[in-house]
């Protein structure tokens, strides 16, 4: 069976309509996805563009040619803007916006040329935006979701198909006088763009869904204010560290950290400033830990560290460094005064993983209580036999 170009355009319209339905359903689930919204706009513009190309039987040819190809280019630019937003969380750079604008403007004089020359011009100009999109995916391939890789690959097929048709139209113009007549290169270009653009669309939806799933998983295991692990996730990590320590006969250090007089910070400076203190402190701690260390927020102003394969000297050295860095965070209170934050810490060790997680927490908690009552702004090493609960102490 021979596929005529108008038949392929009808298939394209059906494909874009199906993709548009899927985009609408996914957008309802993924609220606030700016990248997905831009891709939806691109899909709608491509749908209208191909509809205009088919409408040449009822509208003047110049209107069909200029509006159809212009809308297709705008749709591709929206696709590329969606990719840019998804990958970098930024809008298209100014140079690329200029390229998109000039590409659309290049469609205005199309009606002045005969059909072979129109095909040549369109085939050279149309793929320009998607080249940038494919390059963006390739450049960020190690940072983005793997489900986005096929999007870049399929977009890279589009310029190959269009440039091939441009060369064919230049070398064999007689084959392009009537685009309704089957032409091998024309059919191959349409089929390739059909598969590539729709494939890229469905791939982009999959990438957005994957990112949203990862984000929800992160929210389930991390504290939303500080980005630290939450208590439940940290307790699992502590259990894993203890199991490994038993196998390797190494030592796990567990530390409870508590910001000094944090209630007073909130009372005197407001909760907004208090939240900023927590965020800055968490950032300071994360920047000074090993990749194997665990940092978690246990609640309020209390945090915890799990330091696998460490010892007393190493743990106390880390805490001394954190103490200096915390004092030098450069915070300023709402009234402009320099504000210095300190913390107290209770340190408990599990040599060979022999002390379980509950006992480690009790030991560290008791040591933290002692640090508070000894004047704060210090670290206290727990004795293994200390397992009592901490009495109420003002923060």
From TrEMBL:
Protein name per Swiss-Prot or TrEMBL = diguanylate cyclase
**Which PROSITE patterns does the entry link to?**
GGDEF
Report domain GGDEF positions.
250-384
> Which residue ranges traverse the bilayer?
6-26, 95-113, 119-135, 147-167, 187-208
Top EC class, one word: transferase
The EC designation for this entry is 2.7.7.65
Entry-linked Pfam families: GGDEF (PF00990)
Species this chain originates from: Rubrivivax gelatinosus (Rhodocyclus gelatinosus)
Superkingdom classification of source:
Bacteria
- Which controlled-vocabulary keywords does the entry list? Membrane, Transmembrane, Transmembrane helix
* CDD domains (alphabetical): GGDEF (cd01949)
Please verify whether the record's keywords include Transferase: no
SUPFAM superfamilies to which the protein is assigned, alphabetical: Nucleotide cyclase (SSF55073)
């Amino acid at each position: 069976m021979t596929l005529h170009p108008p038949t392929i355009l009808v298939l394209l319209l059906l494909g874009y309509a199906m993709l548009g339905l899927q985009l609408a359903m996914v957008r309802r689930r993924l609220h606030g996805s700016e990248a997905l919204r831009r891709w939806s706009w691109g899909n709608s513009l491509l749908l209208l563009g191909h509809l205009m190309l088919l409408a040449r039987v009822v509208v003047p040819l110049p209107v069909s040619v200029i509006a159809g190809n212009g809308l297709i280019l705008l749709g591709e630019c929206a696709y590329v803007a969606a990719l840019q937003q998804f990958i970098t969380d930024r809008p298209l750079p100014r140079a690329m916006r200029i390229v998109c604008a000039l590409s659309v403007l290049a469609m205005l004089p199309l009606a002045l040329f005969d059909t072979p020359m129109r095909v040549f011009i369109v085939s050279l100009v149309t793929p320009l935006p998607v080249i940038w999109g494919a390059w963006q995916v390739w450049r960020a391939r190690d940072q983005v979701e793997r489900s986005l890789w096929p999007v870049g690959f399929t977009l890279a097929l589009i310029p190959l198909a269009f440039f091939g048709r441009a060369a064919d139209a230049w070398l064999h113009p007689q084959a392009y006088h009537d685009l309704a007549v089957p032409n091998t290169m024309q059919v191959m270009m349409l089929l390739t763009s059909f598969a590539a653009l729709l494939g890229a669309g469905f791939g982009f939806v999959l990438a957005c869904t994957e990112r949203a799933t990862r984000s929800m998983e992160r929210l389930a295991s991390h504290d939303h204010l500080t980005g630290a692990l939450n208590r439940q996730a940290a307790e699992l990590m502590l259990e894993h560290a203890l199991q490994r320590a038993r196998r390797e006969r190494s030592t796990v250090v567990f530390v409870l950290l508590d910001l000094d007089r944090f209630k007073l910070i909130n009372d005197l400076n407001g909760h907004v400033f208090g939240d900023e203190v927590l965020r800055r402190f968490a950032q300071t701690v994360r920047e000074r830990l090993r990749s194997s260390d665990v940092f978690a927020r246990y609640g309020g102003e209390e945090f915890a560290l799990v330091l696998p394969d460490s010892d007393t000297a190493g743990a106390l050295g880390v805490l001394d460094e954190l103490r200096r860095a915390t004092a030098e965070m450069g915070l300023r209170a709402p009234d402009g005064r320099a504000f210095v934050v300190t913390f107290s810490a209770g340190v408990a060790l599990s040599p060979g993983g022999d002390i379980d997680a509950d006992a480690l927490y009790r030991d560290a908690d008791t040591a933290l209580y002692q640090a508070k009552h000894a004047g704060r702004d210090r670290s206290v090493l727990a004795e293994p036999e200390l397992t009592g609960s901490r009495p109420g102490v003002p923060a």
